[in-house]
Amino acid sequence: MSEKRILIASLLKPINDTRMYEKLGLSLSKLKDTHVYVCGFKAPLPAASPGNLSFQPFFSFKRLSMGRVKAQLRFYRLLEEIKPDVLIACTHELLLPCYAYRRKHKVKLIYDVQENYALNLLKQNNYPPLLKQALALGVRSIEKWISPKIHHFLLAERSYADELLFLENRYTVLENKYKPSVSYTSPATPVMIKEKPLRLLYSGTIGEEYGIFEAIALAEKLFQVNNTTTFTIIGYCANKGTLHEIKQRIKEKGYIRLVGGDKLVPHEQIIEEINGSNVGLLPYQPNDSTFRCIPTKLYEYMAHALPILVQQNPLWHSIVKHHQAGISVDFNNIDEQDLTTTLRQTLFYTSSTPENIFWRTEEDKLLQVFHQMNQ
């Protein structure tokens, strides 16, 4: 039997991206007689990857530049070179070159829907009103136009099944559950903070919609209650204006530190910070683009038994309550004295680390999709 070639690609995600490489890539590398290629933005190559998995650190350009357009042409030439049997597009921006390639070659096209891109453009404040409407319309038009040619959709959120009407019944939900490293060990539970200094953590994408300024405000309040409080912000911020405002806000506040900001941070470094913290913050502000999504960091925090402060939301509240993982609060209306007392008196993770938050359940579903494709 000849070796099958699977190409997983994203325009902006780094080649060591958690979902693209650690989850999809490593899971698919377990298929017999298969070689997996991961194509993405230039980043350090992961160590000790399997022999049947190769990297194409193909993209390197400024986010707002013509390089972003030229990259799609370069990507098409890469497709002609590798000649994949299965092509997984992890962003809407690669759908057009994938479609062009599919018209000329026998290949099964899979769209890994990591976000509801059109809804994000409409509801988040990254562009002027008219521009974001035009961009959202363009993205949705491309998705609808190409959807009949897509063999299968992978959905990072259950809510997308209701929001994206072009999916029909050709989809599988693969949530962004936690993929533990080889060195991972189950944390000790139950967890109680008691009189320990509060070590607050905000990790992942840094943005206004994700509540970064509310998180900073909370850290400032808790520091006034107890000056042993520290706060770490770790992740990447794509908005230069937001990043500048953050730096101004935390300047001369030694108890707050920023890791990353203008550059991507390796996932292992984020996990190290999770293990060194005792309160994880999820201060997402109410927004239609995130209200029905489960943040990846929620799974990460629970996998490491990190107590969580989560913005009030019925979906998130049900998860943290069921697993005794944290407390739902309104980040815009917090009594810091009461919160400090509650954090120190609450026993978290009384039933150990939840079993249903790990990627292995999603890996089984992913491999089943490919087994069915080969039948």
Automatic annotation (TrEMBL):
SUPFAM superfamilies in the cross-refs: UDP-Glycosyltransferase/glycogen phosphorylase
EC number: 2.4.-.-
Transferase found in the keyword field: yes
Keyword Transferase: yes
Domain Glycosyl transferase family: 193-336
GO molecular function, one term: glycosyltransferase activity
Keywords for this protein: Glycosyltransferase, Transferase
InterPro entries according to UniProt: Glyco_trans_1
Top enzyme category: transferase
UniProt name for this protein: Glycosyltransferase
Protein source organism: Pontibacter locisalis
